[in-house]
Amino acid sequence: MFIKNNWPGISWAIIIFVLSSIKPPAIYFPDLFDLFTPDKVAHFIVYAILVFLLALGFVKTPGILSRNHFLFSVLIAATYGGLIELYQGYFLADRVGDWVDCLANCIGCAIGWIIARLFFTRHSLK
């Protein structure tokens, strides 16, 4: 039942892992600490989608995940984003773990939380 209800979020997490594992294109950004570069905006979007998909799956899963679907979706997605940055920093030669990317992931999680709350309120879901 868990996999059936959560396959979109799990699939999206796998896509994030694959994209995080490949060598990025050589694109120069003048200020890597700017949170509004295309790279950071991509982090916002990717993790907002992950939180939304996890919340959507968790609300359909009986038990504690259903009762706390927003909390668990944000905590899991933010933790996953941090672990991906550690994975890139310590295990991949062509990637770099970046705390600013981790911050962008967390901001994306917050955006996803807001979108999920608005969606669930509008569509009479928990």
Chart the SSEs and their pairings.
Elements: H1 2-21, H2 38-59, H3 64-67, H4 69-91, H5 99-122
Helix pairs in contact: 1-2, 1-4, 2-4, 2-5, 4-5
> Can you write the helix and strand succession as a string?
HHHHH
What's the number of extended β-strand segments? 0
Strand percentage, roughly? under 5%
- N/C terminus separation: 19 Å
Query: What's the helix count?
Result: 5
Going by helix content, strand content and strand pairing, the class is mainly alpha
Give your account of this protein's structure.
It is a single chain. The chain is mainly α and 126 residues long. It has one domain (2-9, 36-122). The protein has five helices and no strands. The radius of gyration is 15 Å and the shape is globular.
Task: Briefly say what this structure is.
With 126 residues, the chain is mainly alpha-helical.
Which features would summarize this protein structure in a list?
126 residues; globular; 0% strand; mainly alpha
